[in-house]
Write a sequence for this structure.
């Protein structure tokens, strides 16, 4: 069985060591809903590789731009919106290509 990118596999202590943060900082990120790990049936926080990447991105933004948690929240919101718009543009581009191909067939 292979581990997927979104599979919750890392306990909070492991993630804290992986990213160089205190566990309480990760709990604060969860409280602010910046990174929300899944929970095991026993209530243990379990982080995925995607969660770890997001935590590293947050740390990069804090270091590079001097952002506080409110700034990080805004960056996450804007990044998500940009990704949604990018996906929408890709879908529209496919539709335009299909329409143009249909016009070529009709006129040809």
């Amino acid at each position: 069985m292979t581990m997927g990118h979104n599979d919750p596999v890392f306990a909070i202590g492991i993630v804290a060591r992986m990213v160089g943060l205190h566990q309480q900082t990760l709990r604060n990120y969860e409280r602010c809903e910046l990174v929300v790990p899944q929970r095991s049936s026993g209530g243990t926080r379990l982080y995925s590789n995607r969660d770890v990447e997001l935590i590293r991105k947050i740390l990069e933004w804090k270091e590079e731009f001097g952002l506080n948690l409110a700034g990080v929240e805004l960056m996450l919101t804007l990044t998500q919106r940009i990704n949604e718009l990018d996906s929408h543009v890709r879908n529209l581009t496919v539709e335009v290509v299909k329409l143009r191909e249909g016009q070529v067939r009709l006129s040809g």
Remarks:
- The mean pLDDT is 93.
